[in-house]
Design a protein that fits this description.
The chain is an alpha/beta fold. The chain is built from eleven helices and twelve strands. The chain has helices spanning 3-14, 19-26, 30-44, 61-88, 101-118, 131-139, 186-190, 206-213, 227-235, 282-291, 297-306, and strands spanning 49-52, 55-59, 93-99, 122-128, 145-149, 159-166, 168-173, 193-197, 219-224, 240-244, 256-260, 268-274. The protein has a five-stranded mixed beta sheet with strand order 4-3-5-12-6, sandwiched between helices. α1 (3-14) packs across α4 (61-88) and α2 (19-26) crosses α3.
């Protein structure tokens, strides 16, 4: 069994069982990929794929297990390379981050600027998507870190660092009836059409649960990933927007009125996740420190050991988001 065979097998799986696409990704020929996969199956003594003629239609049960173990082996190979590179040249490298628009637009710029000052040769690749898309990219090895908000139920196989908590803001045009108020109740909010982030309309979202716990009906008329898109539709009069407080810019949003949600909606948490097999290089530790100074390096190691790190709420500034407003 050779690493190349495992690499080709994993590439086929990650390419939707499309051998041609896998060959293109690997910069080799389709027959070469098929041959290596066949050699791996011969070595193992069982089929990895369910086939219809020459087409691969699914992984066998055994194939799914081999894929899981192969991904782990190839990741460890990358870790060995990263460890070697860290020892010989810890000032160069690449950091791949998957995150949401709000984090990318309003939180990360200052953090990445500071990282570049310490590690000027580090290249950062930023991938934006929903939490589900970002976690998929992490599990498939496309990124090193995921930075997201909301529940972590889908990330139980990952190391997670709870970074900071933030408040939502309700935004309306200056001419809106709510613009005359300094505060609002959940019952009042439920009487208006709502524009929220993608995912905040789901039953497991804290927003929906807050309405349900209060026995209130609500109407979500529009969802978007992008805070700026939500604000655009608020300006159009479609509804009342609910966005992260750090996404309210006093200068650019002077035509909007923002209301606090303290006491009516729970705080949201932002967390960072990575695969437990990831070798954390020096610049990765530095990024975590810059993003969340209250998370110590030994706590990160504790998180790796325990698969979760919860910051003591009594020791955490709340809400931390004021630093980015």
């Amino acid at each position: 069994m050779k690493l190349q065979q495992l690499r080709f097998f994993v590439a086929v799986c990650h390419s939707g069982l499309n051998v041609t696409a896998a060959a293109k990704q690997l910069f080799t020929s389709q027959p070469g990929v098929s041959r290596q996969v066949r050699l791996l199956e011969d070595e193992l003594g069982f089929s990895l794929f369910v086939r219809q003629g020459k087409a691969l239609v699914a992984l066998t049960h055994a194939g799914k297990e081999v894929l899981r173990r192969s991904e782990r082996i190839l990741k460890e190979v990358e870790n060995i390379k990263a460890f070697s590179h860290e020892l010989t040249n810890d000032r160069n490298g690449q950091l791949n981050i998957a995150t949401t628009h709000t984090q990318a637009r309003y939180v990360l710029p200052s953090v990445l600027k500071q990282l570049h000052e310490v590690y000027p040769s580090i290249k950062v690749n930023l991938l934006q998507g929903t939490s589900q898309q970002n976690l998929k990219s992490l599990r498939e090895g496309e990124v090193d870190f995921v930075i997201s908000s909301g529940g972590t139920e889908e990330a139980t196989d990952l190391v997670k660092l709870d970074l900071y908590k933030w408040q939502r803001k309700i935004v309306v045009p200056k001419g809106h009836v709510l613009a005359q108020q300094d505060s609002i109740t959940l019952a009042e909010l439920s009487g208006h059409p709502l524009i929220v982030y993608v995912g905040n309309d789901q039953q497991n979202s804290s927003l929906v649960q807050a309405f349900q716990a209060a026995g209130l009906d609500y109407q979500i008329v529009f969802t978007a990933r992008d805070s700026d898109v939500i604000k655009t539709y608020v300006r159009s009069g479609l509804g009342v927007g609910i966005i992260a407080s750090m996404a309210v810019d006093k200068q650019h949003d002077s035509d909007l009125h923002a209301l606090d949600t303290v006491g009516i909606l729970p705080l949201s948490a932002t967390w960072l996740a990575f695969n437990p097999s990831l070798f954390l290089r020096g610049f990765m530790h530095e990024f975590i420190q810059l993003f969340a100074p209250h998370v110590k390096r030994e706590q990160v190691q504790s998180a790796i050991d325990n698969k979760l790190l919860l910051i003591d709420p009594q020791k955490q500034t709340e809400p931390i988001d004021s630093a980015w407003q």
